[in-house]
Write a structure and sequence with these properties.
mainly beta, 5 helices, 4-stranded antiparallel sheet, paralog of FGE (formylglycine-generating enzyme), 2 domains
Length: 333
C-alpha cells in the first residue's frame, strides 16, 4: 500500500441549496487526513441537513459520497459557521498524489417535516406591468427580508402533516399537492406550525412577485428565471396535461423553482383589480376585505401569458382545482 499523501488544492466546487447557504469553504492537511471547513448559513435554526463530501482528483468526475469521514457530516447537521469534515484519506485510498484535488460539499434537508426555504433579502422593486388592467400602474414596493419555500409543497409533505392526499394527480408523492382550497391550506399551515412549533404562512402577493422576479438579483425576466418559458416552466405548450415533480426546470435568480407554471399558488392577499392604484409602498398586504384571494404563477394548464411573473389570478376561499397548490413563506427569525 502506498502511504504517500501529496496534493495541492487548486479549486473547490460546492453544490448547495441556494447561493446564500454554503460558503467560506477551505481545506487543510492534518497528517494523513484532510479537514474540510464550511459555513452553512442563512437557514432557519430548526433545519437539519444530510451533509455529504465528494472528491475529484486531477479534474476527473467526483467520487463519493466519501465513507471514511467524521465530524459535521451525515444526518442531523444544523446550520452554523466553521463546520468541519475530517476525511481519513488512507482508510479509503491507497494514496493521494495529485496537484489537482477538488471537493464538493452537498447539503439536503433531512427532516421531511421541514419545508426547504430560500432566504430572500429585502429591497425595492417595481411591481406590475402594462399587460393587463389589474397589473397597472407600475409602482415601487419595498419588501422586508423573509424566507420562501424553494419548491412548491409536495403531496408527500401534505400527507406527512395532514394524513391524507387531496390531489387529483395522486400517484406522484413528489409532485406538488393540488386540488386544495385556500381554507384547506390555512388548516395545513396551522397543523404544520403546531407540529413543528414554527410560523409558516402564506406569502403576500408582493412577496411572491418579488421572489419570483429574483429579488435583489433580478434580471427582469418575463418569467421566473428566464425570458424563455420552456427553460423554467411547465405550461400548456410543453407538458403532458399533468403536474410535474418540482425542480426539474431551471431555478430563478434566487434558486427558487417553478414560480412560473406547474401549479398556481395561493397568496394571503384579498384580490382587487384596482389595488395597485393606491397600494402602500412598504410591505403591501392587499385590501382589508374581499371575496377572492390572489393566485399567482400560472400552471401546467395555462398559456405563456398566464405564467408571467406579473400575471394576477384570483379565486374564492373554497375553490379547488387540479392545477392550484401552495408555496409557503416565513418571517426572518
Amino acid at each position: 500500500m502506498r502511504l504517500g499523501l501529496t496534493f495541492c488544492f487548486v479549486c473547490f466546487f460546492f453544490l448547495h441549496l441556494s447561493s446564500q447557504q454554503i460558503g467560506n469553504v477551505r481545506a487543510e492537511r492534518d497528517g494523513s487526513s484532510i479537514v474540510v471547513f464550511y459555513d452553512l448559513m442563512k437557514v432557519p435554526p430548526d433545519y437539519l441537513f444530510d451533509v455529504s463530501l465528494y472528491v475529484s482528483i486531477d479534474g476527473k468526475d467526483f467520487e463519493g459520497p466519501l465513507k471514511s469521514v467524521s465530524g459535521e457530516v451525515g444526518n442531523d447537521i444544523s446550520g452554523g459557521r466553521e463546520k468541519r469534515i475530517i476525511w481519513n484519506v488512507m482508510e479509503e485510498r491507497e494514496s493521494l498524489i495529485s496537484n489537482n484535488v477538488s471537493f464538493k460539499v452537498q447539503a439536503r434537508v433531512y427532516d421531511s417535516k421541514v419545508i426547504e426555504m430560500v432566504y430572500v433579502e429585502g429591497g425595492e422593486f417595481i411591481q406590475g406591468s402594462f399587460a393587463e388592467y389589474d397589473e397597472k400602474p407600475l409602482h415601487s414596493v419595498h419588501i422586508e427580508n423573509f424566507f420562501i419555500s424553494k419548491y412548491e409543497i409536495t403531496q408527500r409533505q401534505w400527507k406527512r402533516i395532514m394524513g391524507y392526499n387531496p390531489s387529483f394527480f395522486n400517484y406522484c408523492d413528489e409532485c406538488p399537492v393540488e386540488n386544495v382550497s385556500w381554507k384547506d391550506v390555512e388548516r395545513f399551515i396551522e397543523e404544520l406550525n403546531r407540529q413543528t412549533n414554527l410560523n409558516y404562512r402564506f406569502p403576500s402577493e408582493a412577496e411572491w412577485e418579488y421572489a419570483a422576479r429574483g429579488g435583489k438579483n433580478s434580471k427582469k425576466y418575463v418569467f421566473s428565471g428566464s425570458d424563455d418559458p420552456d427553460q423554467v416552466a411547465w405550461y400548456l405548450d410543453n407538458n403532458n396535461q399533468h403536474t410535474r415533480k418540482p425542480g426539474l426546470k431551471k431555478p430563478n435568480e434566487l434558486g427558487i423553482y417553478d414560480m412560473s407554471g406547474n401549479v398556481m399558488e395561493w397568496t394571503s392577499d384579498w384580490y382587487s383589480k384596482t389595488y395597485y392604484h393606491d397600494a402602500p409602498y412598504k410591505n403591501p398586504e392587499g385590501p382589508n376585505t374581499g371575496s377572492h384571494k390572489v393566485i399567482r404563477g400560472g400552471s401546467w394548464n395555462n398559456s405563456k401569458k398566464q405564467i408571467r411573473v406579473t400575471n394576477r389570478s384570483y379565486s374564492t376561499l373554497g375553490s379547488k382545482y387540479d392545477d392550484l397548490g401552495i408555496r409557503l413563506a416565513r418571517d426572518e427569525e
